[in-house]
User: Fold this.
Amino acid sequence: MKLEASSRSAGRNAALRREGRMPGVVYNKESNVPVAFDAKAFDRVFREQGTSSLIDLDVDGDTHQVLVREVQMDKRRRRPVHVDFYAVTAGQKLEVYVPVVFEGEPAGAEEGGQIDVQRREVGIYVLPSEIPHDITVDISALEIGDSIHIGEVRHLLPETAEIVDDEELTLVTVLAPRQEVEEEEEEGVEAEPEVIGRGGEDEDGEGGAAPADEDEE
Assistant:
């Protein structure tokens, strides 16, 4: 998507916002350019592209391919007030975090299983031209107790992409019904004295009678 912008002078941020525009900066290792752009236009583009998709930022007729790196928010009014755009270099890999979209209803849900989403993005090192907008993961085959880990979505990524997260980390799992878990916990509490009562074994693991209380005759 494309976003129109113009270069700006420092110190006019309040005036820009009164005009319905936002301040920002386009940067990389070689440059740092203050810019301004229409706030509503940015909102539309950002909702569509997020932080993992390239945006064509036209600054006074000069187009830069950029990623949104940081959006500063006005916490009181809950609206963006400043944006940092990172200008990518063609052919040079960069680290991005790609959103994960979970598709389908787990088979375990029919038995009361509950979906537990633990991560909604995957960090990858990839060429700018190959950054996926998102990763769609089908979870319809998951039974209770099943999980999908980051390493298992490797086939959904571009061949040149490198995963930067721990591939053993869980993206999503299907938990047993809460009532069933509570019942198992209660059973575990009741069974605990039996485990403690095994103290009839000595250090060599051989069975023997439990020692008598010291005050017994």
Summary: The CA atoms of residues 72 and 82 lie 5 Å apart.
